[in-house]
Amino acid sequence: MIRKNKNALLVVDIQNDFCPGGKLAVAQGDEVIPIINRIMPRFDRVVGTQDWHPKDHESFAINHHNKHVYDTIDLYGIQQVLWPVHCVQGSKGADFHNDLNIDELDIIVRKGTHPHVDSYSTFQDNDKKLKTGLKGYLKGLDIEQVFIAGLATDYCVFYSAIDSIECGFETYVVIDACRGVGVPEGNIEQSLEQMRSKNVNIIHSENL
């Protein structure tokens, strides 16, 4: 399945705030770490990503009067879920989880740095204007296959997978190395359905 010298693994947002005890904890989010650590050495390139928000980020519910966590608003023409404050630049919550083997990472991509627009995808902001540079990095290495693992299945993994397909990469989501938020209810199942419809391959780590 893995094409030698043509593959990359995206390790998405394995950060303290997304793991149990964090500000935006994904249920059982830390369970993916041993799986990711095990599979990272199989890939030619491993990319780690981090949410890296300024504290005044407009995706934070606290920055909107009379709004609550998980409310949805129109933010400059884009539907935006409002989140608890999380992954603030330089904070402990934004750090990679201590159990993640960061020595395997070839490059780190930080996203969500602009206060007025969120960035679920590891390739670009939600308004599709500001790019992270990940596409150019992978294309420059002649990568053909992109494998994705991490948090969360129905947000950053989902949007990264869709963008990966649109960038022309053969794309795989390692589903047992992902966990989802499930907001709104049923979002994980819907995201998996949409990914499959866009030709994203949903696989298990044992099949790598």
In short:
By secondary structure, the chain is an alpha/beta fold.
Keywords:
208 residues, alpha/beta, Rossmann fold, two-stranded antiparallel ribbon, 8 strands, globular
Task: Summarize the structure in words.
The chain is an alpha/beta fold and 208 residues long. Helices cover 19% and strands 22% of the residues. It is built from 4 helices and 8 strands. The strands form 2 sheets. The protein has a 6-stranded parallel beta sheet with strand order 5-2-1-6-7-8. Helix 3 links the parallel strand 6 (145-151) and strand 7. Helix 3 runs parallel beside helix 4. The radius of gyration is 16 Å and the shape is globular.
Please identify which CATH superfamily we are dealing with: Isochorismatase-like
CATH class call: Alpha Beta
How many structural units, i.e. domains?
Answer: 1
Q: Compute the number of strand runs.
A: 8
Q: Please identify the structural class as seen in this structure.
A: alpha/beta
Rg for CA atoms: 16 Å
Question: What is the rounded distance between the termini?
Answer: 6 Å
> Unreliable runs, pLDDT <50, ≥5 residues?
none
The percentage helix is: 10-25%
Strand order of the largest sheet: 5-2-1-6-7-8
User: Can you write the helix and strand succession as a string?
Assistant: EHEEEEHEHEHE
CATH architecture identity: 3-Layer(aba) Sandwich
Overall 3D geometry? globular
Task: State mean pLDDT (0 to 100 scale).
Answer: 97
Counting DSSP H or I runs of 4 or more residues, the number of helices is 4
Q: Report strand %.
A: 15-25%
- CATH level 3 topology: Rossmann fold
Largest sheet: 6 strands, parallel
